[in-house]
Amino acid sequence: MGPTAERTGVTSVHADIDALKGLHEALVRYRHAQREVTGRGDEEIKVVRASLEAKAGRWRARLEQCQAEFGACQERAARAAAEGPAAADGPVDCSGYARAAEQCAERLEQIRRWQQRIDAEASEFGGTASRFGDLLQNDLPRTEEHLLAIIRSLEAARRVQAPGS
Fold first, then answer.
1. Contact present, 79 and 113 (Cβ < 8 Å)
2. Taking the C-alpha atoms of 12, 17, 22 and 26 in order, what is their torsion angle to the nearest 10 degrees?
3. Which of 21, 54, 77, 142, by CA, is between 20 and 30 Å from 105?
4. Considering only CA atoms, which of 66, 92, 69 is closest in space to residue 79?
5. pTM value?
6. Is the dihedral of CA 65, 66, 67, 69 positive or negative?
7. How many Cα atoms sit within 13 Å of 144 on the Cβ side?
8. Whole-angstrom Cα distance, residue 30 to residue 36?
9. How big, in percent rounded to 5, are the helix, strand and coil portions of the chain?
10. How far is CA 69 from CA 66, 75, 79, 88, 106, in A?
11. How is residue 160 annotated by DSSP?
């Protein structure tokens, strides 16, 4: 093999080692970036749960208010009915209060269904994220170390001079 062929082979080995070093650096960056992503996923789930709980709280309060207004209307209607046709205001219509209370209850039930769905999806995400986190925490660092060992071995072999060189 001539000097040009040897230099081309050595250059190729240098390029291969540099490519492996680049791969190692990319794996390290990937691992750190993905840790941040999984952490943000957990935080987003907490934010959504808190938002839904706050909405549920507002709708529970609104439902209580609507039920109280409906109850007061029913009391007025009962008093008006007891007074008979001589009542000054005539019959009391509570249907608007009943609809409002029903709508609040429906809205609260929708929020509860969303909470259940978020909990179910978050549980599924949690299992997947846990496995992915384990990969990031354990498997990927082992792979990085193995790759570094290969790089060190190749660099050591590159430093060995061939007989007659």
1. no
2. 130
3. 77
4. 92
5. 0.63
6. positive
7. 17
8. 10
9. 90, 0, 10
10. 5, 10, 15, 21, 17
11. S
